[in-house]
Specification:
Elements: E1 30-31, E2 34-35, H1 36-40, E3 42-45, H2 46-51, H3 73-90, E4 94-98, H4 99-102, H5 109-128, E5 133-138, H6 157-176, E6 181-184, E7 190-191, H7 199-220, E8 225-228, E9 238-239, H8 244-253, E10 260-265, H9 266-271, H10 276-286, E11 289-293, H11 312-324, E12 333-335, H12 346-373, H13 375-383, H14 390-396, H15 402-412, H16 423-433
Parallel strand pairs: 3-4, 3-12, 4-5, 5-6, 6-8, 8-10, 10-11, 11-12
Antiparallel strand pairs: 1-2, 7-9
Binding site for Mg(2+) 2: 265, 268, 304, 306
EC number: 5.3.1.5
Cofactor: Mg(2+)
């Protein structure tokens, strides 16, 4: 143990415990023929858990941790050791990181790359000792002032090239560490005003950059998935990866819909005006559901607050869509969530994750029961049952024409009457499980 978490014992499943423990998350519980751990595939986010200092727009650091400000390699190495201590306490199978989270930026691209590999040496050693695997790696292409006008969409081609070099180095490390995915989040791939923006050119550049990433994946033999993470705004006024539908349109435009999947965040879905389950259901329908960032927003705030999840009904509906998609393959449940800035103690970070893991476990169990009982799906099939008739199927066939359908409807004297959607009954049904 590095010292920071040394007073905290590894958590165990103990539903009757009065102390720190999992009360609902039992990694070995079998649901739908698979262990709970293998369904949920939990990951800890390095940036919020070990990089965030507790600041906000009106005040600076509130957390006092021995590796802050992590602006030297020695402090970055101490942070890495503390991170793997937390991973062991929680027993998570995965973690995620940005390059900027794990090492201070160097004076050149080469120095930044070397520093990243130096930290990767520590990761590799700790992983070999039984530490968690890497769910995904990614590059921070938004914090440095060079990216104030975007990375792939920057009007300066030198920034595009710098971002390409950074992503290549991060992909190499992700590949080296056996990462299961590589994520691109376009934090500043958007615009503040159309008055100085060539929208068409920026969209083309974003698509070209993504194509280059896919090409490089195949060149190095990376077997994981390339994921894009949608977000509608914040920090930019409008981001080009607004939501699932917007990203899918970009993928289609550049012929990447079979190469790239999505990492979908609950908080980003809310900012886009959607529910989390809507975004997951649409990604499932389009065949691009990859992985999730599990958190929540404060519904009284209009920004991305990245709080740990605490709503079982919300998580149940999310995992219901994931189970309907067949479950995760390379993806998993990453806690892209941070403590509140008044939660100062090491135990706060442990208990935040433990509580969130229990909430997800309860949601998963409810979702599995709903799927097994088939009551929701039965009601859905009944609602669309009329489409199973030969006449209805013929309307969807290649030989159908609008005037042919119209003539048949007129001749038959059709007078369809509304049928109840029974929404409240179905909401009540869901509440039986959660």
């Amino acid at each position: 143990m590095s010292g920071y978490f040394s007073s905290i014992a590894p958590l165990r499943f103990d539903p009757d415990s009065d102390g720190p423990a999992f009360r609902h998350y039992d990694p070995d519980e079998i649901l739908l023929g698979k262990r709970m751990e293998d369904h949920l595939r939990f990951a800890v986010a390095y940036w919020h858990s070990f990089g965030w200092e507790g600041g906000d727009p009106f005040g600076g650091r509130t957390f006092d941790r021995p590796w802050f400000p992590a602006d030297t390699m020695e402090l970055a190495e101490a942070r890495a050791e503390a991170a793997f201590d937390l991973f062991r306490i929680l027993g998570v199978p995965f973690f995620c990181f940005h390059d900027h989270d794990v090492r201070p930026e160097g004076a050149s691209l080469s120095e930044s790359r070397d520093r990243l590999n130096r930290i990767a040496d520590i990761f590799e050693a700790r992983m070999a000792e039984g530490g968690p695997g890497l769910l995904w790696g990614t590059a921070n292409l938004f914090s440095n002032r060079r990216y104030m006008a975007g990375a792939a969409t920057n009007p300066d081609p030198d920034v595009f090239a710098y971002a390409a070099a950074t992503v290549r180095d991060c992909m190499d490390v992700t590949h080296r560490l056996g990462g299961q995915n590589y994520v691109l989040w376009g934090g500043r791939e958007g615009y503040e005003t159309l008055l100085n923006t060539d929208l068409e050119q920026e969209l083309d550049h974003m698509g070209r950059f993504l194509s280059l990433v896919v090409d490089y994946k195949h060149k190095i033999g990376f077997k994981g998935a390339i994921l894009v993470e949608p977000k509608p705004q914040e920090p930019t006024k409008h981001q080009y990866d607004y939501d699932v539908a917007t990203v899918y349109a970009l993928l289609q435009r550049h012929g990447l819909e079979n190469e790239v999947k999505l990492n979908i965040e609950q908080g980003h879905a809310i900012l886009a005006g959607h529910s989390f389950e809507h975004e997951l259901a649409l990604a499932r329908t389009l065949g691009v559901l990859g992985s999730i960032d599990m958190n929540r927003n404060d519904y009284q705030s209009g920004w991305d607050t990245d709080q740990f999840p605490n709503s079982v009904p919300e998580t149940a509906l999310a995992y219901y869509e994931i189970l309907r998609a067949g479950g995760f393959t390379t993806g998993g449940t990453n806690f892209d969530a941070k403590l509140r800035r008044q939660s100062l103690d090491p135990e706060d970070l442990v208990m935040a994750h433990a509580g969130a893991m229990d909430v997800c476990a309860r949601g998963l169990k409810a979702a599995a029961r709903m799927l097994q009982d088939d009551l929701l799906e039965s009601a859905r099939r009944d609602r669309y049952a009329g489409w199973q008739s030969p006449a209805a199927q013929a309307m969807l066939g290649k030989g159908a024409t609008l005037d042919g359908i119209a003539d048949a409807a007129t001749a038959s004297g059709l007078d369809p009457q509304p049928v109840s959607g029974r929404q409240e009954r179905l909401e009540n049904l869901v509440n039986r499980y959660v």
